[in-house]
Amino acid sequence: MEYCMEDWPEPIINVQSIAESGDTIVPYRYIKPPSHRPEILKSTPQEQTIPVINLAGLEGDEHACNATMHEISVACKEWGFFQIVNHGVRPELMERTRQVWRDFFHLPMEEKIKYANTPKTYEGYGSRLGIEKGAILDWGDYFFLNLLPLSLKNHNKWPCLPETLRETVEECGGEVVKFCEKVMKMVSKSLGLEEEYMKRVFGGYGDEGVGVTMRANYYPRCPQPELTLGLSPHSDPGGVTVLLADERVQGLQVHKDGAWVTVQPLPHAFIVNLGDQIQMVSNAIYKSVEHRVMVNSEEERVSIAFFYNPRGDMLIGPAKELVTPARPAFCKPVTWNEYRLILRKQGLHGKAQVDSLKPS
Ligand code: OGA
Ligand code: NI
């Protein structure tokens, strides 16, 4: 059956309007089955935490540089999820970007729904992923926009209020793209590939090269946070994700060795994670990592995710340098456009999509 991607299967209800109605119970559409609910154990101390990498090491002498590269490759292999400090983006700009999105989500609903999105491109203000009728929904609203390629960037689809939003997102987006390129170089080198490798296979150079998108997430307070999730378990489908998280409110959890590890964002750090396309190019030497978002009853949470992706028509598959008799290709190449379409229809389902590429 052909899916209709022009509109949602059901009317969209913004989670913010449910949260602000003052109701003390979560509507059934947001209630996860018992096995998928978060365990909110406030008193248990965390045993593990994601690695922190200080990029200042790369500016140091050869010894410091090698040590930092080693930390990066260990973090990519063992976690696929880490925080980076001294990444080169100004703290003031990060704070301004977070604030301008917080202010956007606090605008009246009439202002926001002018940008209501559809599943065709997802650009704009929305509250769900996937078009499965009757699906259980997540406790969050978002705004999604394109930064690259330039032919897809359209300021008219970005909020016109707050007045400084467009320039702030433009400035922060530009800086984050430069940072993503640094990360792609580090990832390439740590796999023993030449530094430009990832960028090249992603469709690389010029304004019509790689794709970069941004999703501002808004997780309102939730009266029964133990029954739902702000974002269901998923791995990010693209290359790398750079997250500007809320420093005051926790929520993000990373799946590691069968447990969920809560991330405590460091001030002015970026949280970086590897997506499915890096798993594919690296022939699963690096794996994309499942993560989810918990909500809470005390405070809303805002996070901004930047996604660095291949160009739509690029066929992405294992680098031939990383395929050996001992490690045969773990998947066939697939274009980013095709890959992304499945997610746009089906929504978030853990690592099911990248796992489905494995030969059975
Ligand atoms: C995402 C994501 C995490 C967060 O947008 O893909 O995983 O903390 N966000 O909002
Ligand atoms: Ni994610």
Automatic annotation (TrEMBL):
<dbReference type="InterPro" id="IPR050295">
    <property type="entry name" value="Plant_2OG-oxidoreductases"/>
</dbReference>
<dbReference type="InterPro" id="IPR026992">
    <property type="entry name" value="DIOX_N"/>
</dbReference>
<comment type="similarity">
    <text>Belongs to the iron/ascorbate-dependent oxidoreductase family.</text>
</comment>
<dbReference type="Pfam" id="PF03171">
    <property type="entry name" value="2OG-FeII_Oxy"/>
</dbReference>
<dbReference type="InterPro" id="IPR044861">
    <property type="entry name" value="IPNS-like_FE2OG_OXY"/>
</dbReference>
<feature type="domain" description="Fe2OG dioxygenase">
    <location>
        <begin position="210"/>
        <end position="310"/>
    </location>
</feature>
<keyword id="KW-0479">Metal-binding</keyword>
<dbReference type="InterPro" id="IPR005123">
    <property type="entry name" value="Oxoglu/Fe-dep_dioxygenase_dom"/>
</dbReference>
<keyword id="KW-0560">Oxidoreductase</keyword>
<dbReference type="GO" id="GO:0051213">
    <property type="term" value="F:dioxygenase activity"/>
</dbReference>
<keyword id="KW-0223">Dioxygenase</keyword>
<dbReference type="Pfam" id="PF14226">
    <property type="entry name" value="DIOX_N"/>
</dbReference>
<dbReference type="InterPro" id="IPR027443">
    <property type="entry name" value="IPNS-like_sf"/>
</dbReference>
<protein>
    <submittedName>
        <fullName>Probable 2-oxoglutarate-dependent dioxygenase At5g05600</fullName>
    </submittedName>
</protein>
<keyword id="KW-0408">Iron</keyword>
<dbReference type="GO" id="GO:0046872">
    <property type="term" value="F:metal ion binding"/>
</dbReference>
